[in-house]
Amino acid sequence: MRFHTRKWVKPEDLNANETLFGGRVLAWVDEEAALYSIIQLENKRVVTKYMSEINFMSTANQGDVIEIGIEVVKFGKSSLTLNCEVRNKMTHETIVTVDNIIMVNLDENGKPLPHGKTKVEFVKDRLASKT
Predict the structure, then answer these.
(1) Which candidate, 48, 101, 92, places its Cα nearest to that of 72?
(2) Are residues 33 and 72 in contact, defined by beta-carbon separation less than 8 angstroms?
(3) Number of domains in the chain
(4) Minimal CA–CA distance to 24: which of 16, 33, 34, 12?
(5) How many angstroms separate the CA atoms of 92 and 74, rounded?
């Protein structure tokens, strides 16, 4: 799994127990899944269709640095299925896992749009092929 984003847990990210609020980490996961999908599918019109079971395994405290990892499970006709792990950057202890996040590629009218992708592409490779 590739870890793309780091977040610093700040006071506004905490719950009443003074640990990382689950809703905050899920918002970060959703945003990361969207950004990853936008880059992979080369379309800014991508939405979250589905998130499978979310498994909270541990927590984070104020001042901790967490990282969010995304991995492609499969390419559909107009969708991209991902899985995600959020872990503590320093200890590598898993905080949250999400087995399946389905992102859907949309056209300008908000309808599913086939993307024609079949494998993970890296931006550096796309740039190299255009020169």
Answers:
(1) 101
(2) no
(3) 1
(4) 12
(5) 26
Residue 13 pLDDT exceeds 80: yes
73-107 pLDDT per residue, tens: 999 999 999 999 999 999 999 999 999 999 999 99
Q: What is the CATH number of the domain that holds 104?
A: 3.10.129.10
Cα–Cα distance, 41 to 119 (Å, whole number): 10
- The residue segments making up the domain with residue 16 are 2-124
Distance CA 21, CA 12 (A): 9
This prediction has a pTM of 0.92
Report pLDDT for 104.
98
Q: Can you give the pLDDT at residue 126?
A: 67
DSSP string, the chain: -EEEEEEE--GGGB-TTSBB-HHHHHHHHHHHHHHHHHHHHT-S-EEEEEE--EEE----BTT-EEEEEEEEEEE-SSEEEEEEEEEETTT--EEEEEEEEEEEEB-TTS-B------S---HHHHHHHT-
